[in-house]
Amino acid sequence: MEAATPEEVGTWLADRNYFVLEIASAPLQTLVATGKAELKIPARTMNFFLLQLSSLINAGCPLIMSLHALFRQSPKGPLRELLKDLREKIESGKSFSEALKAHRRVFSNLFITMVEVGEIGGILGEILERYAYINDAMYRLRAKIIKSMIYPAILLIFTILVAWALLAYVFPVFIEKIQVSGEMLPLPTRIVLFVSDIITGHSILIGSLLALAIFGFFMLRSSEFGSRWISKAMISIPLLNSMFMQMELSLFARILGTLLKCGVPILTSLQAVEKALGNVIYKEAINSIREAVSRGESLTQAISKHRDLFPESIILMTDVGERGGNTGDMLEKAGIIYERDLETTIETLVSLLQPAMVIFLAIFVVTLTMAMYLPLFDIIKTVR
């Protein structure tokens, strides 16, 4: 197995009723890739592949034949190479999950875990179908976010470029031509001229500071302290915190509900959910919940200790699910609800962002117009 710690291997084996005698580290060379370039498959292509594969297996087609059928109809590219490699590994005697582990950059730990459960329980087709729907929901959600941000991003970039061009080239020349006397310029003109001098005189410094800030952000995010600080900020910023929290909650409820419905042990399910989430604060909370459940507490009791991250609605639905023996169903329904709430929140934020950008552009244009025309009015008065 590939794992971060021996404890992770022990937990995985114990959840599947294996009695562990010894866990030893494998030599490094056994984990080194064969030298082939890592495959990169677009999310849309992968989503279509998963839906097709689950449909074929649910229709009764054996796994080898399903992969071979998809291989023949796929055009030349990374997906065709992936299908060929998976088929060859399975034909050589490896299980489907073992073949997937050779492509961890293509398949997530969550997907590999679900496939392992499907192979053990004989429900691979159902597992693939459920994961395909989860993957499809996440793909559509990401696409919706990107699509919603295209217009504000274009407007912001256009505004910055126009502002830079006007302040760096147009405004200084204009002021130089109309400033024929030594009279003091109006306050708006002086402010804009000061900003223009900074942009024209220190453009290299500004660009360097901007690049340094971007580099520093990525370095901060890659560190343990920085990733935790950024995660904390994401769920603390007003207006934006609801969107980030709903995103994590929808993933948590969807994935955990699906795994529990498929018969995955709850500790393994929580471990898979922890790996799937992106926010460090939520990861720490899931880890705490898993430890509480391992001590004998119910899932509802464990989640209730983190009411700042999990609202009453999801605690209530978990409690109802545990009392009725259908926790997976209730969590899946909660995930769907949070996905819809997230879509509504995104639409609301975008509807607020677009007029805010227009207002900012209008204020900039008015300020620049006043800075340019007030000196002209002074010249006209002097002439009269």
What does this entry look like structurally?
The structure is a single chain. The protein has two domains: 36-134, Type II secretion system (T2SS), domain F (Receptor-associated Protein, Up-down Bundle); 147-384, Type II secretion system (T2SS), domain F (Receptor-associated Protein, Up-down Bundle), CATH 1.20.81.30. It has 16 helices and no strands. It has 384 residues and is mostly helical. Helix content is 77%, strand content 0%. The chain has helices at 6-15, 43-58, 63-73, 78-91, 96-100, 109-121, 124-178, 187-201, 203-222, 224-234, 240-261, 266-276, 280-294, 299-304, 312-324, 327-383. The model is unreliable at 29-36 (pLDDT under 50). Helix 6 (109-121) packs antiparallel against helix 7, helix 7 (124-178) packs antiparallel against helix 11 and helix 11 runs antiparallel to helix 16 (327-383).
Strands, helices and their partners?
Layout: H1 6-15, H2 43-58, H3 63-73, H4 78-91, H5 96-100, H6 109-121, H7 124-178, H8 187-201, H9 203-222, H10 224-234, H11 240-261, H12 266-276, H13 280-294, H14 299-304, H15 312-324, H16 327-383
Helix pairs in contact: 2-3, 2-7, 3-4, 6-7, 7-8, 7-11, 7-16, 8-16, 9-10, 11-12, 11-16, 12-13, 15-16
